[in-house]
Every structure is written in C-alpha cells, then in structure tokens.
Design goal:
CATH architecture: Up-down Bundle
Oligomer: single chain
Number of domains: 1
Shape: elongated
Distance between the termini: 41 Å
Strand order of the largest sheet: 4-3-2-1-7
Structural class: alpha+beta
CATH class: Mainly Alpha
Order of helices and strands: HEEEEHEEHEHH
Largest sheet: 5 strands, antiparallel
Number of helices: 5
Amino acid sequence: MQYLRITACFFSFLSLFLLITALASDYWIAAIDSSNSGLWKDCDFSMCIEYGMNVKAFIHATRAFLLMGMVAGAVSFFALCASFSHAHIGSISIKHLAVSASFVAGVCSMIAMSTFTGKYRVKPSLAWIGWSFGIGWASFPLFLITGVLACMTPSSPTETRTSGWSLFLNCLGRFQLHSGRKKKGSTPTV
C-alpha cells in the first residue's frame, strides 16, 4: 500500500505547488494591451504597481483564503511525508491530520477562487482570465483527490492487509457525524 502513500504525497505536493504559484503570480487577469494583474500587483509592460492593502474586500478575502489553504496544504504534505515512518505524533494520527488538512486546503482554495470568480467582472473585449487563475482553480480538486488518497492509505507504514477501498470506507465512517440517536444503554451527555 506504499503506492497509495506515494501517490498521495505526489498529489499533495502538486496541489500545494499550484496553489503557491497561483498566489504568487500576477497573471490572474490578462489584458489585450499586454498588461496583467494579480492579487498583489498590476503590471503594464515593464512597470509594476503593487496594491498593498488598498484593494477591494474580495481581493482581501481571496488572499486570506488562499493563504489559509496554503498553510493547510503544507500541513497535509508534511504529514503525508512523515507518515512513511510514523503512524502517530503523540496521540494525533498522522493519517487523519493529513486527510483533514487536505480537505481544509481544498475548501479554502474553493472559497477563495469562488470569491474572486463571483466578484471580478472581465469584459471579454478588453481582458481575459489568466493562467494564474486557472491553476488556482486546478488546486481545488487536487487537494480533494489528495484527501481521498490519504484516506485510503493504511494508518501504519507497515499495514498492507486491507484493500484501499475498505480503508476509504472505514475512513469515511470515522468522519461521519453522529446521527443524534440515543444508543440503547448509553447515558446522555451534557
């Protein structure tokens, strides 16, 4: 089952790399006159003007959620790398940390990209969406794929008896919310 762990690490690295590239690059919007703009600055030919903090609220929200997604993605990547040698750090399962961080990174990147998409209006005759915007959106499903792959990996680096599909179903069962029904013989919690 090491192939699942290796594949999860690869997807985690790829999604984190795409998210960082989208966050740092300035080709979110490309204009016909060869100018481009991103989350941090606007460039016209060879001259760039940095935005700083004087931007609209949706740009701040996009930046914030992409940064949170980047941190969660980094946690997921390093947890998956650590899962090759350890199953737990103290009482924390590395596998569950990686799965949770991957899904959080995916949700944060989806919120950021949706915010930018919903608020930014591009006039097709003057500008179009740039490649930075595209790879930002690409990171969202890749983080979700990473979470599924991480969920399917065995908890222990030496565990190999269970199939990937049963591990995935077992993982989903652990993350399900309790239905709220009182079990027979259980005491109510306060």
